[in-house]
Design brief:
- The complex is a heterodimer of chains A (about 300) and B (about 325).
- Chain A has a single domain, classed as MetI-like (MetI-like fold), CATH 1.10.3720.10.
- Chain A is built from 10 helices and no strands.
- Chain A has helices at about 20-30, 30-55, 85-120, 120-135, 140-150, 155-180, 185-190, 195-230, 245-250, 260-290.
- The longest helix of chain A has about 35 residues, at about 195-230.
- In chain A, about 40% of the residues are buried.
- With about 325 residues, chain B is α/β, with parallel strands linked by helices.
- Chain B folds into 2 domains: about 5-95 and about 175-325, P-loop containing nucleotide triphosphate hydrolases (Rossmann fold, 3-Layer(aba) Sandwich); about 95-170, no CATH class.
- Helix content of chain B is about 35%, strand content about 25%.
- Chain B has 12 helices and 12 strands.
- Classes of the chains: A mainly alpha (about 300), B alpha/beta (about 325).
- The interface between A and B is large, with 35 and 51 residues.
- The structure holds adenosine-5'-diphosphate, iron/sulfur cluster and magnesium ion (MG).
Chain lengths: ~300, ~325
């Protein structure tokens, strides 16, 4: 109708400016903690994916029994003469798979319930009660019972760990989702006719996605520990290698105190992976936090 | 005058708080007519925003509760309406412009995304058609270089431009009624005038009913057709703007008019009604305005005055309304 009116542009305090994806990654790796943790995670993923292509599946009986680490067996050998490095490499695949899948399951359930609780007051009462109950339960004994009943397998481990890990995610997403739900722009969306589903998926979920990413990393780290623990207790899949099973074998053959390499290397793998995932999670959180922009 | 598009009758809203029940809005009635501007005038805390939130269904229940009344839009009572009904009417039937556009727009989406998303969901437009329409709407509200700025985020715009974007969103679905809650309070004076002009223009063009919530008498005088004056959650006076400004029938309105800066009376220093509006938890008995009223009589401290008809199209809630109207009190 008429020409645009020029208007005084005032400088505004820039609120949570959504950084572009590349920008975010660059900021993530500028700190050594970010770059290092990412490199370690990448190394594990590559080992899990491609390691078994280069290392034979450990099995059968070898001649070099209970050898300490050497040039021919970097991580030493066990009482059957199998190469511990090969076991760790093959175990990486199972440990990562269970960790990732269980974490995925926990994240999906946890995020859905957390968002639902944040948005709906009525549902929230129930969700909070169930979450608090789950968090107060002694998890390890419960996981042991359920796994034992369901029969040990990779699938069982994944489902059991996943089903017992969502409450932390729910609590995190719910409390942060509630902050977003109280934002004026949620009223803005409702005034334009957005219903509950659209508000949760379009307005609240994108705002908590960074937390979901952090949760994925932390939950996966916890899931790897749970997997190792359950496998060490003999509740892992007897037909596939995992880090917990290597240690279980050491314990079963009574060499736990002598063949230190048989427990050290899988333990180191667990420690390194959990540490890297945790550091990466924390680092990611820092990059997303506008208050810590200069970090 | 034709039948109102939106008719609020006897609306009361209360909040359950730790200190007790806050009666934020009491027995409020309003009629919004197509193509006309209704101003809701009142000091801060008088219940204007809560009235608007009740109309839009934005009150959180609990703590809020609509304890009486109806909000009828084109034959549908919105009090207790289903979410489905609300979703249909909000945006398309009634839309709202908020005071603070920066916080009312989602910071993580570009303004173009926010406008096109609305059009794609509600008008079933394709991605490209919605984008084209979004640019058109941004041009309509006079965003310079709209085609380029469509991909900017809300925080990249100035306050006035953001308010224009929220207006573009609000009128995107051609609502019958547009509620603007203090749309210019956060802006500087020249920008305020431009935004008011834009709203008036859109109202005329689209034949919308415009509900303008404000505490600024100057704005009311300039753009409104009808006005209701609110005090402490109640409507204290109602009428057409010319008549009400010419001849107020309530001491509060009269005080507000007296406190208005007037270019023709420069000698006068700025006058203000003494005291402050009461907190809804500690409203005085009788007429809530009695501690500040210059015409107060004994009965004012005990009896709540009803909103009564005092002349054609004029209502006032004051024991002395006729006297004030006639200039005798
Ligand atoms: N969520 C709430 N909880 C309790 N009291 C509220 C709430 N929202 C508004 N009120 C009260 O309702 C009254 C009217 O508020 P409001 O409609 O925002 O006034 P205004 O006329 O300035 O827009 C105020 O006294 C305020 O304290
Ligand atoms: S009722 Fe009494 S106190 Fe209230 S406005 Fe009228 S004269 Fe003043
Ligand atoms: Mg207000």
């Amino acid at each position: 109708m008429s020409a645009p009116i020029p208007e005084t542009t005032q400088a505004v305090a820039v609120p949570t400016a959504p950084p572009s994806r590349m920008d975010g990654l660059r900021r993530f790796v500028t700190k050594p903690t970010g770059a290092l943790s990412l490199a370690v995670l990448l190394l594990f993923v590559l080992t899990g994916l491609f390691g078994p292509l280069f290392v034979d599946r450990p099995g059968g009986l070898g001649t070099d029994i209970l050898q300490a680490p050497s040039a021919s067996h970097w991580f030493g050998t066990d009482d059957l003469g199998q190469d511990v490095l090969a076991q760790v490499v093959w175990g990486t695949r199972v440990s990562l798979t269970v960790g990732a899948a269980a974490s995925g399951l926990a994240i999906v359930i946890g995020t859905a319930l957390g968002l639902f609780g944040a948005y709906s007051r009525r549902a929230d009462a129930w969700i909070t009660t169930v979450t608090d109950l789950m968090l107060s339960l002694p998890l390890l004994p419960l996981m042991i019972i359920v796994t034992a009943i369901a029969g040990p397998s990779i699938a069982t481990l994944t489902v059991v760990i996943g089903l017992f890990s969502w409450p932390e995610v729910t609590r995190l997403i719910r409390s942060n989702g509630m902050v977003v739900v109280a934002m004026p722009y949620i009223d803005g969306a409702r005034a334009l006719g957005a219903g509950g589903w659209r508000i949760v998926t379009r307005e609240v979920l994108p705002a908590v996605v960074p937390l979901v990413v952090v949760s994925v990393l932390l939950t996966a780290a916890r899931a790897v520990i749970s997997e190792a623990g359950l496998s060490f207790l003999g509740l892992g899949d007897p037909d596939s290698w995992s880090w917990g099973r290597i240690m279980l074998n050491a314990q079963r053959s009574g060499v736990l105190s002598t063949a230190w390499w048989q427990t050290l290397f899988p333990s180191l793998a667990i420690l390194l992976l959990v540490l890297a995932a945790t550091v990466a999670g924390v680092r990611f959180n820092d990059t997303r936090d506008p208050r810590l922009k200069d970090r | 005058m034709s039948a109102p598009v939106l008719s609020v009758d006897d609306l009361s809203v209360e909040f359950a708080t730790r200190e007790g029940t806050v009666h934020a809005v009491r027995h409020v009635g309003l009629d919004v007519h197509a193509g006309r501007t209704l101003a809701i005038l009142g000091e801060s805390g008088s219940g204007k925003s809560v009235t608007a939130q009740a109309i839009m269904g934005l009150l959180d229940t609990p703590p809020a509760r609509v304890s009486s009344g109806s909000i009828v839009f084109e034959g549908t009572d919105l009090v207790g309406a289903s979410e489905r009904t609300r979703m249909r009417i909000n945006g398309e039937g009634i839309a709202m412009v908020f005071q603070d556009a920066l916080s009312a727009l989602n910071p993580v989406y570009t303004v173009g995304d926010q406008i096109s998303e609305l059009l794609r969901v509600r008008r079933k437009l394709s991605r490209s058609a919605a984008r084209a329409r979004a640019i058109e709407l941004m041009e309509r509200v006079r965003i310079p270089a709209a085609a380029r700025r469509v991909d900017d985020y809300p925080h990249q715009f100035s306050g006035g431009m953001r308010q224009r974007i929220m207006i573009a969103l609000a009128v995107a679905l051609n609502p019958r009624v547009l509620i603007a809650d203090e749309p210019t309070t956060a802006l500087d004076v020249t920008v305020q005038a431009q935004i008011m002009e834009l709203l008036t223009e859109l109202r005329r063009e689209n034949g919308m009913g415009l509900v303008l919530i404000t505490h600024d008498l100057g704005v009311v005088a300039e753009v409104a057709d009808d006005v209701v004056v609110m005090y402490s959650g109640r409507i204290v006076e109602r009428g057409s703007v010319e008549e009400l400004f010419q001849r107020p029938a309530h001491p509060y309105t009269r005080g507000l008019l007296r406190s208005m800066p007037r270019p023709d009376r420069e000698d006068d220093e700025l006058w203000a009604i003494p005291g402050a509006p009461p907190s809804p938890l500690r409203a005085p008995g009788g007429c809530a305005f009695n501690p500040r009223c210059d015409a107060v009589v004994d009965v004012c401290r005990t009896d709540q005055p009803e909103l009564r008809l005092i002349a054609a199209g004029r209502h006032s809630a004051c024991h002395l309304s006729q006297e004030v109207f006639d200039g005798r009190a």
